[in-house]
């Protein structure tokens, strides 16, 4: 193997080729990490929305139930209707979340496709 002397054209070409390869590797790694961070952020936003809605519905039903426990109002009135609507909305929210999980369960992670490689195969 022939050694290249510092300052020669071959040496500087070799160094710049290595630098470009290193830069591409770092860019790829950072790009992949950025993609994973984005996916985590979307998941956190979804979970935040779900828990926020869940908390609102549970709090509404709890307050209405506390009013019912006093015995001053009947279940057939507007307080009972509040509990009924809250429980129906909870059922809907949970069913929708379960359906979403089931839909995405079999989905594989997406991969980049280089069209030129696809066309040659």
Structure description:
- The protein is mostly helical and 121 residues long.
- The chain has one domain.
- It contains three helices and no strands.
- Helix 1 (9-69) packs antiparallel against helix 2 (78-105).
- The relative contact order is 0.05.
- The model has no long low-confidence stretch (mean pLDDT 78).
Task: Summarize the amount of helix as a percent range.
Answer: over 70%
The general outline is elongated
What portion of the residues fall into strands of 2 or more residues?
under 5%
pLDDT < 50 stretches:
none
SS element count, helices: 3
Largest sheet: none
The secondary structure category is: mainly alpha
List the quaternary state of the chains: single chain
CA distance, first residue to last residue? 36 Å
How many domains is the backbone divided into? Answer: 1
Number of strands: 0
Order of helices and strands: HHH
Rounded to an integer in angstroms, the radius of gyration calculated over CA atoms is: 30 Å
Mean pLDDT: 78
Mind sketching the topology for me?
Elements: H1 9-69, H2 78-105, H3 115-120
List keywords for this structure.
mainly alpha, 79% helix, 3 helices, 0% strand
Summarize the structure.
The protein is mainly α and 121 residues long. The protein has helices at residues 9-69, 78-105, 115-120.
